[in-house]
Amino acid sequence: MEFKLPLLAVKEVNISKKFYEEIFNEKVIFDFGKNVTFSGGFAIQEDFAWLTDLPTDSIIEKSNNMELYFEVDDFDEFMKKIKKHENIQYVHQPKKHEWKQRVVRIYDPDHHIIEIGESMAVIAKRYLDEGYTIEETSKIIQHPIKFIEMCK
After folding, report:
1. With 90 as the cut, is the pLDDT of residue 16 above it?
2. What number is the average pLDDT over the span 44-58?
3. Distance (Å, rounded) from C-alpha 30 to C-alpha 9?
4. Does an H or E element contain 51, and which?
5. CA dihedral of 4, 45, 13, 20, whole degrees rounded to 10
6. Which residues have C-beta within 8 Å of that of residue 84, sequence separation ≥ 6?
7. What percent of the chain has pLDDT over 70?
8. In which band, very low, low, confident or very high, does the pLDDT at 11 lie, cut at 50, 70 and 90?
9. Following DSSP, what letter does each residue of 91-151 receive, concatenated?
10. Residue 111 pLDDT class (50, 70, 90 cuts)
């Protein structure tokens, strides 16, 4: 058995496809009309209730129990990009975690949570470039030394 990809139920596949292409630079790998697979390794599906023989009212919107996670090298530039889209609904505004990663969470058009975090590799490199040792950087950003060494 092999896991292939997560699939998100969406109301209007074309609206969601445009969202992921424009905001996240996702490339369409397969477009079967009501089912679209993206380069990031996930898919969207219109008419999910029909596909699965489930009652339409059993497809819960805004369940807040899962998210897609993306990382960006330039967090500030990404924030400028999404601020240009007036219809973005935020789960929360940008914040910085104790491991020094800046993140923001937004909803996609079907209210799935999307987390966008600053690349941990970029953060590690920043601390190393500022003169922190591998061990100090590991402690600050709460990542293993092996990860920090890979970021040099």
Report:
1. yes
2. 93
3. 16
4. helix 48-52
5. -30
6. none
7. 100
8. very high
9. EEEEEE-TTS-EEEEEE-TT--EEEEEE-HHHHHHHHHHTT--HHHHHHHHT--HHHHHHH
10. very high
Domain ranges (residues) in the chain: 1-55
Q: What angle, 0 to 180 degrees and rounded to 10, lies between the N-to-C axes of helices 134-141 and 120-129?
A: 140
Q: What angle do CA 2, 8, 14 make, to 5 degrees?
A: 125
* DSSP β-bridge partners for residue 103: 95, 117
Residues in the chain: 152
Question: DSSP state, 83?
Answer: H
Instruction: Quickly count: other Cβ atoms within 10 Å of residue 104's Cβ.
Output: 21
Triad 13, 14, 20: Cα angle to 5°: 90
Q: Which CATH fold topology does 1-55 show?
A: 2,3-Dihydroxybiphenyl 1,2-Dioxygenase; domain 1 (3.10.180)
Q: Report pLDDT for 152.
A: 87
Q: Alpha-carbon torsion 40, 45, 51, 56, what sign?
A: positive
Residue 12 to residues 9, 18, 54, 67, 98, Cα–Cα distance (Å): 9, 10, 18, 19, 38
